[in-house]
């Protein structure tokens, strides 16, 4: 079988993207998904995005982590919007469906603004916060983030604290009143990624909830680039949450197996 693929990245979070509106990709074969995402024996990516048809929205973003597991992906969602515009499915506004339901988004140039789902609960512990922004996220402040061993410490928490189901682990250092540095260990990739969209969204909300910032617009610096998260807060819940940043095509080609 031979298919066209496209490589996209959103602040260094990279994806193999395939137009699967004809439903020809073997989605049940996780071995193929893992091979495509392998950085030595495949195209190389943090995950696979299949753009598919949907009865109630412009398209369905079918997202797979590099190990074949599924989740919501914020940066993947932004890249899917850019790909949909490239294909001519949308113009500057869209509603699409993902594993966690419907999302709206806008695109201007290479900047995609994606509406995330409301967050009803932020669990606060002494050393960290936990919340779900489409995927589960642990948020923990650390010192000297650049030197921090994210892979080692992230794996400890991912498996030790959260067991088989796991959680994404975000390590955070505050830069100023509404700016934070973030590095993320992603379950499903089982390594640090250069950026995580649902992760930085979780960080922005957790930092606001715990009083580290009073701003409703939070700027996040990841190893792969900068993202902005804005939101409203009503009666303890976070609503109108938007994730904004660049999404760009890197290259395209053909793959066969």
What's the arrangement of secondary structure elements?
Layout: E1 2-10, E2 13-19, H1 30-37, E3 47-52, E4 60-65, H2 74-87, E5 93-98, E6 101-108, E7 111-116, E8 123-124, E9 129-132, E10 136-141, H3 150-160, E11 168-176, E12 179-186, E13 191-193, H4 197-209, E14 217-222, E15 225-234, E16 237-246, E17 248-256
Parallel strand pairs: 2-3, 10-11, 12-14
Antiparallel strand pairs: 1-2, 1-17, 3-4, 5-6, 6-7, 7-16, 8-9, 9-10, 11-12, 12-13, 14-15, 15-16
Written description of the protein model:
The protein is α+β, with helices and mostly antiparallel strands and 257 residues long. Helices cover 18% and strands 45% of the residues. Strands 5, 6, 7, 8, 9, 10, 11, 12, 13, 14, 15 and 16 form a 12-stranded mixed sheet that branches. Strand 9 (129-132) and strand 10 (136-141) form a beta hairpin. The radius of gyration is 17 Å and the shape is globular.
Task: Offer a concise description of the structure.
By secondary structure, this protein is an alpha+beta fold. The protein is 18% helix and 45% strand. Strand 5 (93-98) and strand 6 form a beta hairpin.
Could you name the key traits of this structure?
257 residues, alpha+beta, twelve-stranded mixed sheet, five-stranded mixed sheet, 17 strands, 18% helix
Q: Helical percent range?
A: 10-25%
Number of strands: 17
**Count of helical regions:** 4
Q: Uncertain spans, ≥5 residues at pLDDT below 50?
A: none
Shape: globular
Mean pLDDT equals 97
Order of helices and strands: EEHEEHEEEEEEHEEEHEEEE
- Distance between the terminal alpha carbons, to the nearest Å? 6 Å
* Secondary structural class: alpha+beta
Cα-atom radius of gyration: 17 Å
Largest sheet: 12 strands, mixed
What share of the residues does DSSP label as strand, in percent? 35-45%
